[in-house]
Design a protein that fits this description.
With 132 residues, this protein is an alpha+beta fold. It contains three helices and five strands, in the order βααββαββ. The protein is globular, with a radius of gyration of 14 Å.
Length: 132
């Protein structure tokens, strides 16, 4: 985990060369734990009724606070209720969202604290995100 207290650390890519299971296995577990909450928050924030989006983490950064804030960029794939790819987003049918997760290991606190939707692949992380 890197970062200056109060500042957001450098964005770390998540790909075949840098899988989340090696770079931050704790974050991998946190994303799995919060997956349904992230999906509900995304649907609410996007005002999409007929969707079952899936998410793929593409990068993350950390901020050291009284615990850790994780800023995670997720590639979103829209699926209709019948499972078909709906497209309609950016980047050839894909769009991105950013989530902010507060994690405090010693109290076992894990909270989705922010979500920004309709982001692009190149949008930087922001300190303040709308509440989920």
């Amino acid at each position: 985990m890197t970062g200056v207290p109060g500042g957001i650390g450098k964005s770390i890519p998540i790909d075949k060369e840098h899988p989340l299971s090696k770079s931050d296995p704790e974050l991998k577990q946190i994303l799995h734990q919060l997956s349904s909450q992230i999906q509900r928050a995304y649907i609410r924030a996007s005002s999409i009724a007929d969707s079952a989006p899936t998410f793929e983490p593409v990068s993350y950064a950390t901020q050291v606070v009284a615990g850790t804030n994780y800023y995670v960029k997720l590639k979103v794939t829209q699926h209709g209720l019948n499972g078909q790819n709906c497209g309609g987003g950016k980047d050839d049918g894909k769009e991105y969202c950013h989530v902010k997760i507060f994690y405090q290991a010693w109290t076992k606190t894990t909270e989705l604290t922010g979500i920004s939707v309709r982001m692009t692949k190149d949008d930087p992380f922001e300190y303040d995100m709308p509440a989920p």
